[in-house]
Each structure stands twice: as C-alpha cells, then as structure tokens.
C-alpha cells in the first residue's frame, strides 16, 4: 500500500497543476501515476518536457507504445504495463504482439521486434549495447540515430516506471482488463 497521495489539479502543488491540466487534455483524464508524480513539481515538469519530445520524435505512436510497453515489462511496473497495453492496442499493435511483449518475448512484427529487443537489452545491460545490437536494429529498417532516440523513450519510461513502483498508484477502471503482475 502506497503512502503517496494521488493529486487532482486542485489539490496538487501549484507548480504541478499546469502539467496535470496538459495531461488531462492529452488523455481526457489525469492518469493516477501523474497524480502521484505531481507531489514533485521538479519530477513532473521534467517528465512532461521529455514526454513531449519523445512523442514529437521520429517513431510512430505504435512504435513508441512498443517501446513503452517493453520498458514497463522490463522494469516490472504493473501500472505502466496495463496502461501501455491499452494504448498499444489502440495504436494498432496486434493482440499477439502485445501478449508477446507482456510475456517478455519479441513481437512477430519485424520492426516492433527490433524496437522491443533493443530497448530491453539497453535496460537490462544498462546501456551496454554492442555493434551486433545496433546492426540488428538498423537491419530492421531503422537509422543509427534512432538507437539514441530509443534512449530518450527509455528515459521517459523509466520516470513513469520507477514512480509507479515507488508510489503504487491504483489502476484506473478502464485499464483493469489489462492487469499484469511481474
């Protein structure tokens, strides 16, 4: 049981309120994990800046969700796995590919497999990727610079995953169908 509150726009520290408003506009609600992040205006401010840059990068939303779901599984964050399962499905990932990622396997789609494999390796090996890792990623149709963009997505995801693991926010009703446990 977490001792961290889940803030609303009205109850959050004033410096966190604009970010919560922005997330509410983006998602149509304030995710509980953002309500927990709001306790630290420094953290939620850094998160939203990185979140915006990641979503404005070179990856499609489906590719970003592949990365985010893989990162959530690799970091064993139950809240984020459920949330990104729903978003991945809404972005067109197949149920089979989503299930594979949730099970720690590579999805069948070649590019999604390359994304999932690279980000999992980067997290598990703390960034120690080798030439073979990069070559496999590039051979799947990506560019070398996108290896570094994967790091940016992992950084945004790590913020969410660690906050979820520390604060243990309750899972919203709309994500209950996607409950996951490490």
UniProtKB/TrEMBL annotation:
It comes from Paraburkholderia metrosideri. It holds the Pfam family CMD. This is Carboxymuconolactone decarboxylase-like domain-containing protein. Residues 56-116 form the Carboxymuconolactone decarboxylase-like domain. The lineage of its organism: Bacteria, Pseudomonadati, Pseudomonadota, Betaproteobacteria, Burkholderiales. InterPro entries: AhpD-like (IPR029032), CMD-like (IPR003779). PANTHER family: CMD DOMAIN-CONTAINING PROTEIN, SI:CH211-175M2.5. It comes from the Bacteria. Transmembrane segments: none annotated.
């Amino acid at each position: 049981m977490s001792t961290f509150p889940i803030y609303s726009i009205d109850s959050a520290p004033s410096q966190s309120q604009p970010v919560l408003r922005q997330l509410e506009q983006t998602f149509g609600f304030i995710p509980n994990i953002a309500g927990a992040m709001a306790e630290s205006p420094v953290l939620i401010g850094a998160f939203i800046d990185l979140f915006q840059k990641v979503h404005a990068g070179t990856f499609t939303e489906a590719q970003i969700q592949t990365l985010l779901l893989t990162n959530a599984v690799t970091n064993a964050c139950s809240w984020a796995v459920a949330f990104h399962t729903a978003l991945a499905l809404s972005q067109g990932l197949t149920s089979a590919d989503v299930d594979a990622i949730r099970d720690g396997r590579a999805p069948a789609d070649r590019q999604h497999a390359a994304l999932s494999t690279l980000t999992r390796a980067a997290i598990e090996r703390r960034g120690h990727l080798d030439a073979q890792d990069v070559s496999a990623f590039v051979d799947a149709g990506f560019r070398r610079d996108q290896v570094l963009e994967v790091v940016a997505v992992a950084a945004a995801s790590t913020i969410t995953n660690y906050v979820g693991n520390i604060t243990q926010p309750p899972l919203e009703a709309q994500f209950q169908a996607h409950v996951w446990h490490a």
